[in-house]
Amino acid sequence: MKLLLLEPNNAREDPFAQCWFTADKKRFTAPLLALPVIAALTPNDYEVEIRDEKIEAINFNEPCNLVAMSYKTKDALRTYQYAEEFRKRGIPVILGGMHASLLPEEAAQYANAVVVGEAEGIWPEVIRDFETGRLRKIYLAPKLVPLEAAPIPRFDLLKNGCYCVHSIQTSRGCLVGCEFCPVQEMFQGKTRHKPVGRVLEEIEAVQRIDRKKDIFFIDEMFAGGNRSYQKELLKELRRHRINFYCISDFKVMDPRYIWDLARSGCKKISINMPGTCLPQELKAVRAIQKLGIDVWGYFMLGFSFHDVSVFDKIEEFVAKSGMKNVTLTVMTPFANTLMARKISERNGILTTDWNLYDQCHVVFQPERMSVEDLKSGFLGLWKDLEDFLRIRDSQMKDDRRERSMRRMAGVVSLGIEKAFDLLTGKKDQPVDLEAIIGKKKAEVSVTIDNVMERKRKVA
Ligand code: SF4
Questions:
Q1: Contacts of 295 (CB under 8 A, 6+ apart)
Q2: In this structure, what DSSP letter does residue 52 have?
Q3: 3-class secondary structure, 93
Q4: What separation in Å is there between the alpha carbon of 383 and the centre of ligand 1?
């Protein structure tokens, strides 16, 4: 039996799909773990393949006996189209993931079965029913599983060479409680943690695949989460000497905690920034950067407290903060979330075309500005930040290059000077270094000037 696990994604063709502003314009790709977890839950006698459309095209003619897809709202329509393609070829399709869990009845129109909730609680039953030809339309995962019972994801099935980092999850859920967030619905506003020993096992598993790559803890809220758990985990991470990235909000403002993060190998934090752009937030960003942690600002636009002044505020904040990477999104009221219900009550939902729920289109009526203001403000800010980060990055590169040339020049000049003094014994006399260095002249011309200058001073 062959099971094909797919993650549909329009990121390869839609410029809006990811508004990541890295100064070098490289797309940051990290694997999601839903499919590797399902693969780990699948009986051993199955051949399992994972296809992530972020990095490779989907082939509907790939031979298989069963297809399962996990998808987000922005890819829902694409997923339903793919499901029809496979079913036309006689292959049963199972749908799951965030959007399917929020709207199972919708998903059920396009699939043989829909899994609602976490796969751990229900996947073995789905597979048994598939084998006996008795798939039901909807499978409700009975409850949130304790994470010690979750299997180690099949990292080996990912095309690891195509991702920037290894992804590892230490917890699920988030206590922040943002009203638009589907995580709140999915995990019932609770958080659960994997035992630290299990996290270390997973780190060892990904390091067996590629030791050089950094680790991205893709928890909804890693830094600033449960502190006693974090204390134990960070201690172990420090011992294992890994470099990692993580996600947080401004709870990371506690200096002692930032210090612990930095010592444990944290190199990058993506921080959810509400667009308040307060002086203490700027201070926190700088404090984090000072400890060698790169801050990746994640800004969302369109909250009820945002008016048109928010765009300039964010631009100024980014400029002052020295952040090298920024992600910009538009607040999106995902189906069945508290925010969607509230906006719906005031008739503010403008469309349910899921293709537009990519956090880059405006799909609701904002409270303190017009739809047009939010659209044009978002696009204008996007363009400005992209230009700004690109220009600043090239300036920084020039500055770095100049500094390193100066450093090199200094080191080489001292070396040459010493060597010359030793060779000639003419310690303080002006010398024709260019003649001695000969063909290396061009490479070290700055050096020679420096040496001659110093020689002149000595003389
Ligand atoms: S902080 Fe992030 S994960 Fe947590 S509720 Fe808000 S949006 Fe969701």
A1: 268, 269, 271, 285, 288, 289, 321, 323
A2: E
A3: strand
A4: 26
Measure Cα distances from 328 to 27, 262, 311, 351, 373 in Å: 14, 25, 11, 21, 16
Q: Where are the domains of the chain?
A: 1-16+31-142, 165-369, 405-458
Q: In this structure, which residue's CA is closest to atom 3 in ligand 1?
A: 220
In DSSP terms, which residues pair with 48 in a beta bridge? Answer: 3
DSSP state letters, 317-379: HHHHHT-SEEEEEE----TTSHHHHHHHHTT-B----GGGTTTTS--B--SSS-HHHHHHHHH
338 touches ligand 1 (CB under 6 Å): no
Q: Cα(267) to centroid of ligand 1, in Å?
A: 21
**Residue partners of 271: CB distance under 8 A and separation at least 6:** 247, 248, 249, 250, 252, 285, 295, 296, 297, 298
Per-residue pLDDT tens digits for 200-210: 999 999 999 99
Asked, colleague to colleague, whether 1-16+31-142 and 165-369 share their fold, the answer is no
Q: Is the CB of 175 under 6 A from ligand 1?
A: no
CATH number of 165-369: 3.20.20.70
Instruction: Give the nearest ligand 1 atom to 180 CA.
Output: 7
pLDDT in tens, 131-187: 999 999 999 998 888 999 899 999 999 998 888 899 999 999 988 888 988 888 888
Q: Which residues are registered as beta bridge partners of 7?
A: 52
User: How many angstroms does the Cα of residue 248 sit away from the middle of ligand 1?
Assistant: 9
410 ligand 1 Cβ < 6 A? no
pLDDT at 431 over 50: no
| Band (411; pLDDT cuts 50, 70, 90) | low
The CB of 220 under 6 Å from ligand 1? The reply is yes
- Alpha carbon of 185 to ligand 1 centroid (Å): 11
* Binding site membership of 272 for ligand 1 (Cβ less than 6 Å): yes
> What is the homologous superfamily of the domain 1-16+31-142 according to CATH?
Cobalamin-binding domain (3.40.50.280)
**pLDDT for the residue numbered 429:** 47
Give the distance from CA 91 to its chain's centroid.
33
211 Cβ contact list (under 8 Å, min separation 6): none
pLDDT at 195: 96
| 221 Cβ closer than 6 Å to some ligand 1 atom | yes
Span from the CA of 176 to the centroid of ligand 1 (angstroms): 6
What is the Å distance from ligand 1's center to 249 Cα? 9
